[in-house]
Amino acid sequence: MAAVNVNPLTATASELQTRLADNSITSRQLVKIYLDQIYHYNGYLKAVIATAPEDLLNKTAAALDQERIQGYVRGPLHGIPILVKDNIATGPALGLPTTCGSLALQGSKPRHNAGIIDQLQAAGAIILGKANLSEWAWYRSDFADSGWSAVGGQTQSAYVRGGFDRNNDSNGGHSIRKNNTELVNYEKDQDAGRSTAAPPVFPAHIDHTIEGGPKRMLRHLTEREALQYMNDQYRARIINVWRPLNNPVKDCPLAICDPRSIDTKDLLAADRVTPDFAVELYYLKHNANQKWYWLSNQTLDEITLFVNYDSNCRLEGSDWKTCPHAAFINPDVPADSPPRESIEVRLIVFTRSE
């Protein structure tokens, strides 16, 4: 097959259609060009989950080339190779998987094409393969990395040097994982006129709602871990570990509310949205029946643990509640007390259901 001059990075479908119309290229040649591009770069870019069998693609392209020779052009997509996202069903005749990027669907075989696939084929498009995607089209978790799936891996940009590392928080394949922790110091940076770090949080809150807890866990679990542990056989909890750093905490200590003293009617669900993620949490309205506790002058050796999410909350008839908490300003603290410095770590804990 003679070499042809086509830039697969910049060529548009309309430009390729012009080339096909003036017989300076064939659909079979286009199939080879784009397959070569995928084979050469996909090991790094991870943009494509699967390609159709090459003999099938060549047969399809040759038939479309023959139609063109006979004067029959179906439309602007006639003979153009395309990729479709891997959450669009393709039947057995195309020789392609449909996994939504999930290990749970590896090996699944839809009985027939999605309607859009039939329409594309009727228009003369060549279904070259399946593109990678955010797993389950980002329905796996609100906190999943964009462009990552368990089947296809993390997609990369051809235009960003160094690429995207989804493990840059030092996550490993172990049951105990290291994730980002924050040093909380609300002291003001006088030179810059701004806070050097996140201040203590004063509104009473619970970090995760009943629906938000599982989404948070999915952000930190592998597909295999999620399938193994996030089911009725295991009780899942998110436990916060909080302690002072450098000095005992005097001002803005952490207060914990006894969950048995709260009324669920006083919990208000709200969204906390940042540029990187969104999470649903509860705010707590004041009620005179609530019982709050705190450690006066909490030292570095005194550690506070409390439950932020418990899957037992989801059980029918359960009255189990997790712990509202908040910082508060202590009016009895001397003005020259050092600013609060603290560290908070969240643990995802699974135990067998009773």
From TrEMBL:
Q: Which residues are in the Amidase domain? A: 30-138
Gene Ontology molecular function: any one? oxidoreductase activity
One Pfam annotation reads Amidase
Q: Which InterPro entries match?
A: Amidase_dom, AS_sf, AsaB-like
Similarity comment: Belongs to the asaB hydroxylase/desaturase family.
Recorded protein name is Amidase domain-containing protein
